[in-house]
Amino acid sequence: MLTKHMLLLSAGVVLTTFMSTTNATIRCGTSLISEGDSMSTVLEKCGPPLRKSSEGPARRPNGVPKLNAATITIFVYGPNGGSYQYLRFIDDKLIEIDMKRE
Predict the structure, then answer these.
(1) What is the DSSP secondary-structure string of the chain?
(2) Does domain 24-101 have CATH number 3.30.1450?
(3) CA within 13 Å, CB half, 99
(4) Which residues pair with 52 in a beta bridge?
(5) Segment 45-95, tens digit of pLDDT
(6) Alpha carbon of 37 to those of 14, 22, 70, 94: distances in Å?
(7) pTM of the full structure
């Protein structure tokens, strides 16, 4: 009985590991981009975005950036098949891909 529980627990851990390591990926022409890619890689594969917005890093009252402050940039591509792709970067690293119909 204990062996059966250990087997089920092991299978659950392996399944959880595979589920948590999947990254969002989208196609740009004939190339693929994934979470973790750099901003320069995305620009190289997808070209310039339709829209781009950037904010940060947070600054102190004297204008100096706060310690460990990040720059957040959002690229918008599309419409592809009626949906827009929102790519969110933190310090030039792609961390989120979201698709929305508008």
Answers:
(1) -HHHHHHHHHHHHHHHHHHHT---EEEETTEEEETT-BHHHHHHHH-S-SEEEEE---B-TTSPBPTT---EEEEEEEEETTEEEEEEEETTEEEEEEEEE-
(2) yes
(3) 10
(4) 75
(5) 999 999 999 998 889 999 998 999 999 999 999 998 889 999 999 999 999
(6) 26, 14, 17, 5
(7) 0.73
